[in-house]
Amino acid sequence: MSAKTFPHWAFAVLSLVVVFASACQSPSTENAAGSETVQAPTFVEVPGFSGDSAKEYVADQLAFGPRVPGTPAQLRCAEYLQNKLLIWADTVLRQSGKVTAFNGTELPCYNIIGSFNWNASHRIVLASHWDSRPFADQDPDNPTGAILGANDGASGVGVLLEIARNLSQQCPDWGIDIVFFDAEDYGMSQVENSFCLGSQLWAAHPHRENYRADFGVLLDMVGGKDAQFFWEDHSFSWGRQTLDHTWRLASRLGYSKHFIAQRVPPIIDDHYYVYQGTGIPMIDIIQYNGQTGFAPYWHTHDDNLDAVHAETLEAVGNTLLHLLHNPPSL
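Above: the chain sequence. Below: its structure as tokens.
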């Protein structure tokens, strides 16, 4: 994945808007009994995130097969994601566009967005890509076949679907937008800007005019067994306060073995294009250590459901859920 200019878009339109009454209500908060330190914010406990549930949502996505742009599996999974968000979110939109791949192929692209507290002025954007890679270029036996992308794509989406389910039951006052980016993995490292096509589309044409969020969090490859998440350097550069706050929450919740407060080299991921296009400081929670790189099954056919572990999904999801209810003071 590489640097900076945006591709030319064939078109970008919002094709579906559905609004419905949500069960999302702001939680009540009380001051700690006897506390006289009004500067110290109340820590809001939000039990309810299930790693097992998140893994079931991963399995649901894999059941469609490889979710490659331009295939029937892409359409079926897009409908699945949209219908899931319709159960829980206040507002659901599908942004439909066409993007041009590294080889000149024109691809359909569907970004799926679910919003909570649509009218709130302070907002958080959460994102993950939902497509899977059209070829297993790191696989020694079958490098041309499309992969399921259980960890690389489906794991982050599974976490965010479980987040959405929780928000429908207990939602903070902040506005929250969940964005599932398409066409992230249809790229070649030798071709500049050929990855992250869905996030480039969204950054150039957000789902709301003049859209702003106070900060954002991207999830990518968040289900691996004993996965460790470091401070990716782009995230550190433009989202240091959110990064530090999130890793401290993870430590408080008992997930220090997963969240390591140590800087690693920058990578070009969806968060990069969101920041470049909108200025929203988005951090990246991703399994990447800067030395051995990504997980050993990255871009291979071993990136299947066996690569995803409910315990890791729960560590990431529970941390993120607490972040939404205990945001940093920006």
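The helical segments are 51-62, 72-88, 150-167, 197-204, 233-252, 270-278, 310-325.
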